[in-house]
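In response to the reviewer comment on reproducibility (Comment 2.3), we provide here a single inverse folding case reported in full, input and output, so that an independent group could reproduce the run without further information from us. The structure tokens appear first.
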């Protein structure tokens, strides 16, 4: 199995600079601002939120149910897991179409 590639925020800023024909230091600020805004929207979810980015996908913060009888797999002890929030991403139509294509062997 091959190692998964990691793409950083700086890589996103570089690609964005190239796409919009702008200097990297300007796109770095904008990309950072976009991610900060998304993180703030998700953090402020009370308790759920849906962020729809057309032609890309949907980020959601959803509630989980409490689990009164969860089990610690290490000790076998029964524990209570309270309700919390989790993130979810659903790819948009364009992205989904590209990802559906079979991988070249």
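Designed residues, in position order:
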């Amino acid at each position: 199995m091959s190692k998964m590639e990691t793409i950083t925020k700086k890589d996103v800023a570089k690609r964005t600079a190239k796409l919009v024909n702008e200097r990297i230091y300007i796109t770095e600020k904008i990309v950072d601002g976009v991610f900060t805004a998304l993180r703030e929207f998700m953090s402020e979810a009370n308790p759920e939120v849906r962020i729809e980015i057309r032609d890309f996908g949907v980020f959601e913060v959803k509630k989980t149910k409490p689990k009164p009888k969860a089990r610690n797999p290490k000790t076998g002890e029964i524990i209570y897991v309270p309700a919390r929030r989790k993130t979810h991403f659903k790819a948009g139509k364009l992205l989904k179409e590209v990802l559906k294509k079979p991988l070249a062997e």
